[in-house]
Design brief:
four-stranded antiparallel sheet; alpha+beta; homodimer; seven-stranded mixed sheet; 11 strands; 8 helices; about 300 residues
Chain lengths: ~300, ~300
């Protein structure tokens, strides 16, 4: 069964009634599961996480944009988090039987529908139509207040919707990206320069692995150091590849791996692939895991 | 959420209408999922697999025993598989938030209920009340036909129900056991005596790992050999322990592991524990796997 994750961000984190109207678009709906929603008062922003059938998720997102258009007025919005619109960002992430390319298509469909509601839409990350739009921070630069001018600048015409800022609803970024795996490797040394040096080797910009971002950090209480990584495409650069790369580099300093951490959620496939590598399992399929029988069809 | 697996075996594998009446007890029921059912004409037997809330699964099993009591007459039963009753065996296996000890309790509750229906019941495996009843083959020895005498023998009084064979429904074995992981290790050699020697070392009876059963086998087409194992308690003897034990023994012969196989279904926890070992993940929880969010509550 096809399944996509969508994590729309709404610029309302204080008014429970308004938040509820938005979240209602995803609650107890057939073919999707509202995983979580987190209103943040300081950011004045609510992050919704939903997983489900792509068509149904897309329809619910578009419905929620209409609700947000009603209940949120960006002219009155203030909050600590950068934002450019009432529905600020809408990323699609593949879960099962769905590729990043499919998610790019979903982003375009939803982007078009939001544009048709009179809201300027920018496609970002893997859905970006220009390299400078891949990075969300660059797209959102100037924020809501700055977009009244930015939208008229060369190269900043929206991908969908009018080339005129929507005063009430702002602009929306719609994107597609792979699930990010936050993977940290803790080293048996307190010398942060070693973590730094290894981080610079393992990451893409240093000539390392294609889909790894990394920095070195001290873990002061533990008297250890950490190579803290984001694996931005775990299907192409696997967890075990990052781990083995770091082990090999650490040997240069006579340093070993004390332990590792996976922060937050991880797709089953990311774990299964690395388990299969270390356990040398031939032809293992995630369908062999009993718990997958319990997933709603 | 508590979840148990139950795999009741019914002595009817030919009459689709009767099978359907039995399976109906588990189909589309709230709080449980009918995973599979396999009628076998030669064995004249149907194996049902159901996972769900323990209370609801127990109730459905008892309901199915009443149906089997109606529709199956052991006086007319013939089939290739050993059997002692219309409902032949009822094993409970822990899945989530349930221990083997809990499953022993479920076996006793269901056993008592079946006994109250006038059917002699024997508890087996982890639910056994005597060592000689742990092994199902020993309990079932003599089969339906022999039980009219066996039930009167010293030491073979039923755990529940009358000490008199039920001519129509026979006797039933109810048990609790851990999920078995079928794990094979393929070695880079065609000498079956090496697989044999390693199998004898790794298994419990040879002084090896507590919860491992193992034999050596030739894989003729592959020109390799296999240590074929059943891990009967993957929580206490983990997959990686069996693998590392075999790697260490194989080194004695200058032989390496070509690959491994996990046959059939495996609980997520079995895989996660071994993945965490090899990847040295600190404090990893299966709840961090996205797909667990999709499991019906």
């Amino acid at each position: 069964m096809k399944r996509v994750m969508c994590i729309p961000n709404y610029s309302e984190g204080r008014d429970a009634e308004k938040i509820d109207k938005i979240v209602e678009c995803f609650r107890a709906k057939e073919g999707m599961k509202l995983v979580d929603y987190q209103p943040d008062k300081d950011h004045n922003r609510t992050v919704v996480e939903v997983i489900g059938d792509p068509e149904k998720v897309m329809a619910a997102v578009i419905e929620s944009v209409k609700v947000a258009q009603e209940v949120i007025d960006m002219r009155e919005h203030e909050g600590a988090h950068p934002r450019m619109g009432a529905v600020d960002v809408v990323p699609f992430v593949p879960i099962t039987e769905v590729t990043t390319e499919d998610c790019v298509e979903y982003a375009k469909q939803v982007g078009k529908a939001i544009g048709d509601l009179g809201i300027p839409v920018y496609l970002y990350e893997d859905a970006a139509t220009k390299p400078e739009r891949q990075n969300l921070a660059k797209v959102r630069k100037g924020q809501y207040e700055g977009f009244f001018e930015k939208i008229k600048e060369d190269g900043w015409e929206p991908d969908f919707g009018p080339r005129e800022m929507n005063a009430k609803s702002g602009a929306t970024a719609v994107g597609a990206r792979f699930h990010l795996v936050a993977f940290n490797v803790n080293l048996n040394t307190d010398k942060v320069e070693i973590a730094d040096a290894i981080a610079k080797k393992v990451r893409f910009i240093g000539g390392g692995l294609r889909f790894v971002k990394a920095i070195g950090l001290p873990l002061e209480e533990r008297h250890q150091v950490q190579v803290s990584m984001n694996l931005v495409n775990f299907e192409k650069t696997r967890i075990y590849q990052a781990l083995e790369f770091i082990k090999a580099e650490a040997r240069r300093y006579g340093v070993s791996v004390y332990g590792t951490e996976i922060i937050g959620m991880v797709p089953l496939a990311a774990l299964v692939e690395s388990a299969a590598y270390y356990m040398q399992i031939e032809n293992f399929s995630a369908d062999q895991i009993i718990e997958t029988l319990l997933i709603e069809e």
